[in-house]
Amino acid sequence: MNLLVTGGAGFIGSNFIRHMRETHPDYLIVNLDKLTYAGNLDNLTDLENDENYRFVKGDICNEALVRHLLRTYSINAIINFAAESHVDRSISDPGIFVTTNISGTQVLLEAARTYGIDKYIQISTDEVYGSLGATGYFTEETPLAPNSPYSASKAAGDLLVRAYHETYGMNVNITRCSNNYGPFHFPEKLIPLMITHALDGKELPVYGDGLNIRDWLHVRDHAAAIDLVLHQGKSGEVYNIGGHNERTNIQIVELILERLGNSKALIRYVEDRLGHDRRYAIDPAKLESQLGWQPKYTFETGIVETIDWYLENEVWWRDIQSGQYLNGYDFRYSEPANG
Ligand code: NAD
Ligand code: DAU
Predict the structure, then answer these.
(1) What average pLDDT does the segment 265-290 reach?
(2) Least C-beta-crowded within 10 Å: which of 7, 250, 306, 310?
């Protein structure tokens, strides 16, 4: 297969590309990424000389470029990870979320329709379902009720994907997963932010009462699930992905401090996030029963491995802190002619 992976220089996209390289070394993978602040070519240095891998710097909103890539590389499937992904940024600056997460999705869908692409997968999120109370789980039938500009833009993208299936009969899937963790997680998100702050002896900012619950999924288990959906997903279906690992934020923060041998005195309760969703929890029964997916990581082993990864890869996150990671771009990417 020839795959167009968008947003492949980000956290989940880069882990997915590495997973696919290991499981399907013969597939051509074209990684289209705009290299926003969240895109980092250091996530994929091991693939730089791989003959079945191409990196293209560009925007999913650039219709001519997307069409050019589908034609040039005879793409069979598109897996769309490209997005603005951080809730806090969507609260302070929502506009770019609408552009990338909604308009960008439509550009990809339209190009896929024009060129008769066999499969389109939209990487979505459990946040489109809104917030849960103390009990219950999100299933694929849960009504969409997004609460932040980020989740609203993701929900709108999902509805466009659905519409392209219903209207044009396109072979699409939408995956909705819970919070990912693992290597190459950008240090603005809870787990890497707390690890890097603890290592620097800085305060750990916990929003509100610290009792909001997230359902953690190892990024490699997520990648394996998308691989299954790519090959076996039934046209038009939504698949929830989650590993039954609910934790309060304060549990996560205390676990990190304990593992690193830091004092809880570093914890600082700060003003809550606006519209902060209280609890997410995924029911992955459909993916398990229909496609045979099972997570390999327990949270206990995955989080320890992740903390150790940040200890062993300090240069990676220090380069992000200093902005150094942005400097190599000019000579490391190739930009093709459009159209
Ligand atoms: P990320 O922010 O780490 O990476 C996003 C990538 O997309 C970056 O490489 C960025 O440069 C690229 N990008 C942004 N705008 C672009 C554009 N206009 N054109 C091309 N590339 C662009 O995000 P992530 O955490 O890896 O998330 C990937 C996808 O998974 C997103 O769609 C997100 O909504 C979804 N998701 C993430 C999580 C999570 O826990 N991280 C959970 C559920 C769903
Ligand atoms: O559920 C899937 C979603 O998970 C994805 O769709 C998003 O792209 C991804 O960013 C993530 O969203 P969250 O808002 O859940 O992740 P974040 O790491 O920003 O925050 C996790 C929890 O930790 C949330 O309850 C807010 C809290 N938090 C976060 C930060 C950054 C803090 O208490 N302090 C912080 O400094």
Answers:
(1) 98
(2) 250
